[in-house]
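User: Protein folding is very new to me. Would you mind checking the protein record under this note? It all follows right here:
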Amino acid sequence: MLEPYVAGILVAFGVFVLGLFSPGPNILAIIGTAMSSGRRSGKALALGVGTGSFLWGTLTLFGLTALLTAYAAFLTVIKIAGVCYLLYLAFKAFAAAWTGKDMTVRAVEAEGGFWSWYRRGLLIQMTNPKAALTWIAILSLAMDATAPSWVGGIVVLGTGVISIAGHLTYAVAFSTGPMVAGYRKAQRLIDGALGSFFVFASYKIATSER
């Protein structure tokens, strides 16, 4: 039965989508590569990053499902980790909004064609140590010890599609200077909104009774 889990799934999607509005190193690499090496290279890199995000989500889901099946009480540890990570993201967003810290794009080097850039993006994402924490926080918004595995599957599949689409959007839309300049003008407002939402998401995890 899907209904009991709809709210958590939607919040998980919301946190993931808004996280894409706060460019981290991976997104800045996509923007920088698209600007310096062209949209084709940026899109290949974006597809690699998006695929890596989906793989991280899948691995985290299998790990959490196994742990919760064996140790239901481990859910408390997962929730605490999720709350702490979301509050950390909120702190970073509020700090960026307060200081007006500018984003610095960086280009990624890769030799070869489309698949070389794709493999580079996949490697960047799969070696990102923060990815596991991100996925623990995302999945803890939708799952509990009694949730069927398909709930997590919906979250992973949906966010996988969102990740690929979102990163491709950055590669296409932010491959020009004016788009980057426009984002920079609105960045403080965006960071403030993101911080508020991350605080809300951490509250949802902390007060969830499921």
The first helix runs from residue 3 to 20. The chain has a mean pLDDT of 81. The radius of gyration is 17 Å.
